[in-house]
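TASK: fixed-backbone design
INPUT:
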């Protein structure tokens, strides 16, 4: 019942606002940093991947990527470029330092141990974490996300539609490797 309900909620989730968010994340957080973040040659994990709408948008935008997606619910993926692992982000079933890029969109508030994201990030790797917010609370939400991780903040900002749904996005870098 719960699984069906969750799948139902996310089944038509790539609404225009979501699509706008993922496009802005690609345009504002990934493409300008292409010299540093090389999605196509990176091991990528997405924690709380949902149906993988970000990956679908990235592939449609020309990124030749493959992602390991973790989600507590088993859902059909929006693109076949995802290896889905069904499991909890509270005890991420991946080795320490095993991913160059760790994504987690609008899920961090659901995780009991969000710092697990940092554990699986390689030295010099990047994490892009977003959280739902609005125009009044985005600063507090962003500060909360930043307080969860001992990682360098490279970039942060709002994405989405103020009249519908917004997220605050933080791009982090792990450690001292340039
Ligand atoms: C708001 S949705 C975001 C989905 C996706 N990241 C996106 O942007 O479309 C939150 C996702 O987190 C998953 N989730 C909730 N609790 C989780 C947990 N403890 N571990 C892993 N995934 C979880 C849900 O099943 C859902 O797919």
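OUTPUT:
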């Amino acid at each position: 019942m719960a699984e069906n309900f969750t799948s139902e909620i996310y089944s038509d989730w790539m609404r225009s606002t979501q699509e706008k968010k993922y496009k802005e994340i690609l345009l504002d957080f990934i493409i300008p940093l292409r010299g540093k973040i090389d999605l196509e040659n990176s091991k990528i994990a997405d924690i709380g991947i949902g149906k993988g709408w970000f990956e679908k948008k990235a592939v449609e935008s020309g990124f030749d990527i493959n992602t390991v997606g973790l989600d507590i619910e088993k859902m059909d993926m929006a693109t076949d470029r995802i290896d889905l692992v069904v499991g909890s982000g509270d005890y991420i079933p991946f080795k320490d330092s095993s991913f160059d890029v760790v994504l987690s969109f609008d899920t961090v508030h659901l995780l009991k141990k969000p710092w697990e994201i940092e554990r699986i990030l390689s030295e010099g790797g990047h994490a892009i974490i977003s959280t739902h917010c609005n125009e009044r609370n985005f600063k507090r939400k962003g500060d909360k996300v930043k307080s969860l991780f001992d990682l360098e903040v490279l970039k942060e900002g709002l994405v989405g539609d103020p009249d519908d749904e917004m997220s605050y996005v933080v791009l982090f870098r792990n450690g001292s490797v340039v």
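COMMENT: The chain has one domain: 2-173.
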